[in-house]
Each structure stands twice: as structure tokens, then as C-alpha cells.
Design brief:
The chain is mostly beta strands and 547 residues long. The chain has five domains: 44-136, Immunoglobulin-like; 144-245, Immunoglobulin-like (Sandwich), CATH 2.60.40; 255-330, Sandwich (Immunoglobulin-like), CATH 2.60.40; 344-438, Immunoglobulin-like, CATH 2.60.40.1220; 442-540, Immunoglobulin-like, CATH 2.60.40. The strands form twelve sheets. Strands 11, 12, 14, 15 and 16 form a five-stranded antiparallel beta sheet that branches. Pfam families: Big_5 (PF13205).
């Protein structure tokens, strides 16, 4: 007879084991599910002594936040106004930021501590922008303010996170040499406001620093700047002091970069746009014979090919309008070797050739000769030989392949090895191209009937795309009609430059010369082009905005 007691305990063990396995299954470790990413900067909980304290006599300021914080680039970002010989020491610990004052404070003076973008949370690095702390060692706190907007002089768009700062007139010599202690950053709409200012005459500046900047000191080479020419007297809350930032032209010519490339060519980058540039080999003079020089459209870069590379060193003279601007030397080793490959690019966009353009070939080396017999043109797989190969009369990097292109046909072109021969006997490898001709029905025309505000002035009317790139421009000084003919259907806009000096281009400003950029007006109306459509529209140019 079975032992019932033993069976009972066996059953109890089975039940206990089942419960244990069930518990372990429910309690197994799971990967935590992440919530939404924290995008909010820390918030100030308390300030000790309180912000805007009068009769301040503390040696330390303690700011508590609602989360752990850290410091970023505090030596660049933090400032105190008025300046102190021994700047405060900043320490971040958990939720606390301590500011230890090292120097003696002046009597009856308002101090502003500007933290810039130096304080952020530890986990996501969310930055507190324009954090400040103000106190006075006297019974009164300076309470004047200055506000306005900052925009880009060329695009008209509002500038986000531009630095706006003021300098007392007597300290304006510090501009471009030392960071101004009184500054703020514009918000996402380009607005700024400087608070707790003392009565006085100030110069006002805006600075849009380049990527990698952040020292809040104007660097002419890389930054954009805006300024109010005349000092502003701040004796009350002052509003609508608006600035436009612009890129200054370099006052003195300089070569930004020079390079002897591994294909034997020489590349130069200038800090100015030259008007009538020329490059001459001064030493050895024999190397100057047969050289090829290509300048960019803006005349701010150059590429030079020397056909004689037997030199140990070469001296080049960069000239503009007949004046030598700078000499530059290049050295090469006698055993230096160069790797060359002739490449071909064309003007096909998305597999289509613009019916109003020639089929254009662009090379990376000056081409000396072409062999049309090594070019195979297929029209819907049928070989065609009645094409013509034409070299550009000015640009030695361009050739044109002329043919009566037809709609609804597929074109395949094979450039066999050696179809083109460049300097140093460099030849192309086999290259294949394929495209169709875009139909003329895909293009439109806009006729603009223009009324100018003053026939004694000059205006540059530009047809621009959505990215504000110039498509075409006209110089006008009287009422009339201009045509933007045969452009792809799409959205376009009109930009007008008030060409004060009548030179046909937009001129930027100069702090040294006290000039502002030439004024620009954007027509608020979109000038769309519809496919296979001719549009007639009116454009009344308003008078230029006043200073």
C-alpha cells in the first residue's frame, strides 16, 4: 500500500518548485525601456544671496538647480562686468554652482555676472542660455535696458544665437582684441535684450561667430559682424536698436592656403576677391612659359599647372590690376613623383539635359587634344557620327559635344581611353554617360514690369531660388520689363540690391571705413514658374529703408 505521507510531501515539493519557477520567470531581469529624451535645461531653484541684491558684501554666490549641472568652457563663456583683475572662480558640484569672488568690489557699483552657455545638465548637456546674476554694492541697481533684433544683411533672415555686446565709448579700442563683458545671445527669432545697464554712451555690436568659434572676440577672417556707426546714449530703456551682420572683405591681401598637389598642380586660396588677377612665375623665368592658370568665378582661388616640373623651387607673383600683391615659394624634391588621372564631369542633372544648354564636358586638367573617333554616341542604341566636338574658346577645362538632341530619346556616350589628352600626356580612362533631353514643356518664363523709385539710382534685380541662390540678375536704372526666360518650373523669388555705387554687385560693409552693406529688399510675393507657361507680373521697387 502506497505511503500516503510520502506522497503528500512529494506533492508539496512539486508545488513549491512550480511556485519558485513561476516567481523567477516573473522576476527575470528586463532591459529598462527608455523614456523621452530630456531636452530641457536645468532650472534655477535658489540664488544665495538673492539675485538683484543691494548693498552686497558676500564673498561667495551659491546657485542651486533642479538637477545635476556641469561647466562647459567657463573661461570663454563666463564674464563679469565691470571687469576684475582676478576673475571669480566657478565650481559645479551636484546641483550646486558656486561663484567665489576673488577681487575687491567697487563701492556703489552694479555688477553683472554673465554665464553665457557655460552651465548645462550632466546627462544630456542641455545648456542654460543667457543665465545671469546681478547685484549692487550700493543702494541702487542699474536698471536700463537695450533691445532689438539681429538679422543677416544678405539673406534678411533673423540670426539665432548671435552675440550682441556693448562697449563704453572710452573702451571701444578693445573691439576685436578682448571679449566684452556686457553681452547677450539672440533667441531663435533674432531678438536680444541687455539688462541692468548703466547710463552712458556705448558702441553697439553684433557678432555671428563661425563654427568652432565662441570666444566672443571678432575674428575678421571667419566671423560676421554688425555695428551701429554712431554711439548710442543709453539714459532710458532703449528699444528697436536693430543690427545686420555681414562678412567684411579683408582689408589686406593674404594667401590663406597654398598647396603643391600630388598631381603636380598648385592650388592657392585668397582672402579677397581680386578684380583683374594674374600669376607670373618669377623664378625660374623659363618655367613661366606654357603655364596654365585657372581662376574661380569669384577670383578668390587659383589653380596653376606648370608644364616644366624640373625645378627645385619656384617663386610665383600674385598680381591684381597690375600690382604685385604677394610672392609665394614652392619647393619640390628631385625624386618627387606625381599621380595623375584625367576625369570628366558634365552638366546632366537627374539624368536630363537642359534643352537650352549645350552638353558640356569639364576636366580636371587642361586638355591639349581630343580624338572624336574614340567617342561613341548612341541614340536609342543606334550609332550616330554626325556630332561635333568643340573646345571652349576661353576655358581650357571645357569641351562641348554638339548634336541635334531630340525628345523621348535615350543617349549613351562612351569615351574610350585616350579620347582626351591633357598636359603631361595624361589621358582619360573609359567613361560612360547616359541621359535624355528634358522637354521644353518643363520650363517657364517670367516677364517683370518694373517701376523704380528713383531713376537717378541703380538697382540690381536678381531672380533667386528657395535657397536664395542667384539664378540671374539685371542692372536697371529706369522703368521697363525684364525677362527670366526658359527656367525650370518651380518656386522663385525676387531680390533687389540698392546699388549705391553703381558697380553692379552687392557691396558689404566695413567697420574701419564706417560703411554699412548696401541695402537689400526681398519681394514678399513668390514668383512661381509653371511648366510651359509665360507669366507677366508687376514689380514696384520701394525706396530703400532708412538707417
Amino acid at each position: 500500500m502506497p505511503n500516503s505521507k510520502a506522497q503528500y510531501f512529494r506533492l508539496i515539493n512539486y508545488v513549491a518548485l512550480f511556485i519558485m519557477l513561476l516567481f523567477l520567470g516573473c522576476a527575470s531581469m528586463q532591459t529598462p525601456q527608455g523614456g523621452p529624451k530630456d531636452t530641457k535645461p536645468p532650472k534655477v531653484v535658489t540664488m544665495t544671496p538673492k539675485n538683484l541684491t543691494r548693498n552686497f558684501n558676500a564673498k561667495k554666490i551659491v546657485i542651486e538647480f533642479d538637477e545635476f549641472v556641469k561647466l562647459n568652457n567657463e573661461f570663454k563663456e563666463f564674464s563679469i562686468s565691470p571687469d576684475q583683475e582676478r576673475p571669480p572662480i566657478l565650481k559645479a558640484r551636484k546641483r550646486i554652482l558656486e561663484v567665489e569672488l576673488q577681487d575687491t568690489l567697487e563701492k556703489n557699483t552694479t555688477y553683472t555676472l554673465n554665464f553665457g552657455k557655460s552651465v548645462a545638465d550632466i546627462n544630456e548637456n542641455n545648456i542654460i542660455k543667457n543665465l545671469s546674476y546681478v547685484f549692487s554694492t550700493g543702494a541702487d541697481i542699474d536698471s536700463l535696458s537695450l533691445s532689438g533684433k539681429v538679422s543677416n544683411s544678405l539673406t534678411g533672415e533673423m540670426e539665432k544665437e548671435a552675440v550682441v555686446f556693448i562697449l563704453p565709448v572710452e573702451r571701444d579700442t578693445l573691439f576685436g582684441k578682448k571679449r566684452a563683458p556686457i553681452y547677450t545671445l539672440t533667441d531663435s527669432s533674432g531678438n536680444y535684450k541687455l539688462n541692468n545697464l548703466r547710463k552712458g554712451n556705448y558702441k553697439v555690436y553684433a557678432l555671428k561667430e563661425s563654427e568652432g568659434g565662441g570666444d566672443k572676440v571678432y575674428q575678421q577672417l571667419s566671423d560676421e559682424v554688425g555695428y551701429i556707426k554712431e554711439p548710442i546714449l543709453i539714459d532710458k530703456n532703449t528699444e528697436n536698436v536693430n543690427l545686420q551682420v555681414f562678412k567684411e572683405l579683408a582689408p589686406e591681401f593674404r594667401i590663406l592656403d597654398k598647396k603643391l598637389n600630388n598631381d603636380g598642380s598648385i592650388s592657392l586660396i585668397f582672402n579677397q576677391q581680386l578684380k583683374a588677377p594674374k600669376i607670373t612665375v618669377m623664378e625660374p623665368t623659363a618655367v613661366d612659359v606654357g603655364k596654365k592658370v585657372f581662376f574661380s568665378k569669384m577670383n578668390d582661388t587659383a589653380k596653376i599647372w606648370l608644364t616644366d616640373l624640373a625645378f627645385d623651387s619656384v617663386k610665383l607673383a600674385i598680381q591684381d590690376q597690375g600690382k604685385v600683391l604677394q610672392m609665394v615659394n614652392f619647393n619640390r624634391g628631385k625624386k618627387d613623383s606625381y599621380k595623375r588621372e584625367l576625369t570628366i564631369t558634365d552638366n546632366i542633372t537627374s539624368g536630363k539635359l537642359n534643352p537650352y544648354q549645350r552638353y558640356t564636358l569639364t576636366f580636371n586638367f587642361p586638355v591639349n587634344s581630343a580624338d572624336a573617333s574614340k567617342i561613341t554616341l548612341l541614340e536609342d542604341s543606334v550609332k550616330r557620327t554626325n556630332f561635333e566636338l568643340v573646345k571652349d574658346s576661353v576655358d581650357f577645362l571645357k569641351y562641348y559635344l554638339k548634336f541635334t538632341w531630340r525628345n523621348k530619346r535615350t543617349y549613351d556616350i562612351k569615351f574610350a581611353p585616350g579620347a582626351f589628352t591633357a598636359i603631361f600626356n595624361t589621358q582619360n580612362k573609359e567613361i560612360n554617360k547616359s541621359f535624355k533631353l528634358e522637354t521644353i514643356d518643363s520650363y517657364g518664363t517670367l516677364a517683370l514690369k518694373i517701376v523704380v523709385p528713383d531713376t537717378t539710382k541703380s538697382y540690381l534685380v536678381e531672380f533667386i531660388d528657395e535657397k536664395k541662390n542667384t539664378i540671374k540678375g539685371y542692372n536697371i536704372n529706369k522703368n521697363g520689363t525684364i525677362n527670366f526666360a526658359n527656367y525650370p518650373a518651380g518656386k522663385y523669388f525676387i531680390r533687389v540690391v540698392y546699388d549705391e555705387n553703381k558697380n553692379g554687385v552687392w557691396d558689404t560693409g566695413s567697420i574701419k571705413e564706417g560703411t554699412q552693406p548696401e541695402k537689400i529688399w526681398y519681394s514678399p510675393e513668390e514668383k512661381s514658374l509653371r511648366a510651359n507657361w509665360e507669366r507677366v507680373d508687376n514689380l514696384t521697387i520701394p525706396p530703400p529703408p532708412k538707417e
